[in-house]
Fold this protein.
Amino acid sequence: MSFEQKNNENKTKKFDFDELEKELAFTDYENNAAAAGNEKSLNEKPLNEKPLNEKPLNEKPLNEKPLNEMLSNGDYENNDQAYGIVTAGVEPIEMTPTGSKIIGYVTADQRETVRLGTYVIIPYENENLFGKITKLQYRPEFSSDDATEIHTQRMLAKKGARINENDYKLLTSIDPICILYEKNKKGGLQRRMADRIPKPNTPILPVLDKEKVQVGLNIPEEGIFLGHLSVGGELVKTHQMPPTVAYYLRNDYVSGDPLIFRHMLVCGSTGTGKTFLTKNILRQFEADDNRYRLRSDPKLKSPPCLVIMDPQDEYSQLYEDSKVTEADQFSFDSEKIAYGGFQNTKTFVAKVEGENYAGKSKADQMEFTIPFAFVKKNPWILETAGLPDNQKNGLELLVEDYFKRAANKNNPSTYLGFKAFIEDPDNRDYYTEQTKKIHEASYDGIVRKVLNKEYGRVFDQDAKPITELYKTLFAPGQISVFPTEYINSSRIRDLIVLVMMTVIVNNKLNTSGNADIKNTPIILVLDEAHRYLSNAEGVMSGKIISKFAEAAKQGRKEGLGLFLITQDPQDIETEILKQINTKIVLNLNNDAAINAVKIPKDYEKRVPYLKKGQMIIHSPDNGDIVEITGLNSCVVKHE
Ligand SMILES: Nc1ncnc2c1ncn2[C@@H]1O[C@H](COP(=O)(O)OP(=O)(O)OP(=O)(O)O)[C@@H](O)[C@H]1O
Ligand SMILES: [Mg+2]
C-alpha cells in the first residue's frame, strides 16, 4: 500500500486528521504577510519568506496512524487538550539507559499553559509514557534574522501582541519518568522504567487522571497529608473531584514502615510558614484511626504521642479550632485531612522561679520540675553554656564525684549542694593541685559558666518531678506541648529542651527504659532544631548529638520519630541530617542552607523563589521529588 493510499484510508476514520493538520499547518502565508506588514528593508527578509532548506513538517503525513488510533487507551477524549506532538524533525528521538531526548512541538494555543516541570502523558497503543517538561525553546519557523535594529524598533512600536505564534516553533524536551501500564484488569495501574520510545507525531497530553499522577510519581494514595502537588506554584488539576492531587506521606507497614519513624525535617527562612505547615501536618498524626505498631507487642497498635518543644508558644493552639469554610471542609473530608482542634492537647510547664506562664490556649496545663538527681546520669544537660571539651570532661568528673562522695540518703542531691561542692576550696585544691585531674583554668571556667545562678531557679522546684510523670507526659494519643518562651534565660530554656530530649532518647534506647516511654510511639518535634543538634564545636554536648544520631538510627524499630524544624539546616550535625528521610524545603534564601539540604540541582534553583506555602519534598522512600503547595488555611488555630 502506498503512502497515498494509506493516507486516503485514514481519512475515512472517525477522527478528522485533516482538520488538525490544517490547524498545525502553516498554510496561512497570506495572513503572515499581512501580520508582518509589507515593509521591506535592505537588511530584513520578511519573516515569512519561504525557508530554503525547510519543508513544512506536515507537508505529508509520514507513515502514520491517525491520532485516535494511537489513543486506544482512554486518553482520546483529551486530544483536543494536547499540548502538541512528539517530533523527530528537529532532533532524533532517543532513549538510552542514562538519558533520553524526546522533543515535542507545542501548538500555538497551548503555549501559555506549558511550563517547566509540567507533567505529561505520551500514549503508546496500550500504555502511557509519563514524563515531565524539562526544557522549552522558541525557534523561528522560517530562517530569518530578527536580531536587527529595524525589526526591534518595529516590534517596540507595536501595541499588543508582538509575535505571531505561527512564525515560531515552541519546542519542548520531555524527560520520561516511567511507563504506566495496567497489569491486568484488577491489578490497577503499575509503573516501570521508561523502556519504550514514543512514536513521532504522538500527542503530548496533560495528565488529567489522579491515579496516573500518583502512580507516575510513585507517591502513596493515602497516608499523612502534606499538601497538594503543584508545578511552579500552580496546583496540578485533574478531572476528578476535588481536582487537586493530594501528596501523602507513607504511613503504613505494607510497603515499609511509616516514614515518620525515618524522620522529617521542615526548613525555611523565618516567616516562610514553617509553624503553620507543621501544625497542619502534626494534626494528621492524631487523626482518629492513626495507630502505630510497637516492637514490644507487634499485635498492639497505639496512637502516637506528639512531644513538642515550643520556643514561641504556638503549639498549644493545636487544642483549638480554626475557622474553615464549607468548601475547605468538603475538600478536607474528601481528601481525608484531619482538621479541628485536638482535645487531648496538654501544656506542660516547667516551674521556674520568678517566671510565669500565661498560657496561649485553653488546653490543660500542668507544672513539673527537674530534679537535680537527673544530672547524675546526664551531666551534659549542664553543658548548654558552650563549654570547651576540657571543661566538659572536668564537669562530668565533678558531677560523678559529687553523687559518689557528697550526696547520700541523708543529704539528698540538690543544685545548691553541687554548687557548694565545687566551690569548696578543699575540693578545688584536690582536683587542681593534689590530683591534677582538672586544670586550674578549666576548673574556674566550669565554676563560672556552669554554676550560673540561673540554674538555681530551675532544679527541684515546688512541682512534681518530671521523673514521676512519664505516664502523664507520654500518654498515647496525646499532644504534649512544652512551651519555653515564658522563660527569660536562654540557658534555662535550652536546659529544659535538652532534658526532654534526653528523657525520650535514653528511655527509648535502653532495653531497661521506662515502659511508658518505650511502649508509646513518640514523635518528638523540635522547633529551632539547629540549637540543639548543632554541628559547631562546643555548642552542645557531643554526647547528646551522638545519642541523637543513634536514636535516629533506631527510631524505626523503637517507634521514635523526629520532626525537626529549622531555618538553619546547615547548622545541624550531618550525622543526624543523613538519617532524615523526608525533607520539606520551604523558601530558603542563603546558599549554605540550600546546599545543606542536599536536593537535586534543578530543584535547588527553585528554592529561593518558593512562595509562602510552596515547598519541595524530597522523600526518596515515599516517591519522586516534587513540588507541593500546603493548605492555605490552618486546620487548627494559628495566630
Ligand atoms: N500556606 C499559608 N497560607 C497562608 N498563610 C500562611 C501560610 N503559611 C504561613 N502563613 C502565614 O504566614 C505567617 C508566618 O507563618 P509561620 O508563623 O508559620 O512562619 P515561620 O516560618 O514559622 O516563622 P518563624 O521563623 O518566625 O518561626 C503567619 O501569619 C501565617 O499565618
Ligand atoms: Mg515558627
Notes: The first strand starts at residue 84 and ends at 86.
